[in-house]
Write a structure and sequence with these properties.
Elements: H1 9-37, E1 41-44, H2 48-53, E2 60-61, H3 67-70, E3 80-85, H4 89-100, E4 104-110, H5 111-114
Parallel strand pairs: 1-2, 1-3, 3-4
């Protein structure tokens, strides 16, 4: 049986990946927390039934499918936006829509991860 000469590379790669993921999450959380502290609006782009099952206090439910019709409800010069959903995928799509309209926006990811910040 042949032994791996460079066996140490695997733990180093795993540790490096863990550090990158942890740092990215921490940095993003600080950005979102700062936006919340400065009055950003939290837009939850899940369906109405998902939103009713649980949500962040004072968040605004606009299902992703309705966002283009409702984007005029917001003021691009004044409103800072945080998008959330069940896992972060729809929130990223919403972020793109808001960005294209000139808004300052951040994908907050899973709505449940932000509950403690509000």
């Amino acid at each position: 049986m042949e032994t791996l000469e460079n066996w140490w590379i695997i733990p180093v790669l795993i540790t490096t990946l863990w550090i990158i993921i942890k740092y990215s999450g921490t940095k993003k959380r600080k950005i979102v927390e700062e936006l919340i502290n400065n009055g950003a609006k939290i837009i939850d782009v899940r369906t109405e039934s998902e939103f009713k099952a649980g949500n962040i206090k004072n968040s605004i439910n606009i299902p992703l499918s309705d966002l283009n019709k409702r984007i005029s409800d917001f003021n691009q010069k004044e409103d800072k936006i945080i998008t959330v959903c069940a896992a972060g995928v729809r929130a990223e799509s919403a972020k793109i829509i808001f960005k294209e309209k000139g808004f300052e926006v951040e994908n907050g990811g899973k709505w449940s991860n932000l509950k403690g910040l509000v």
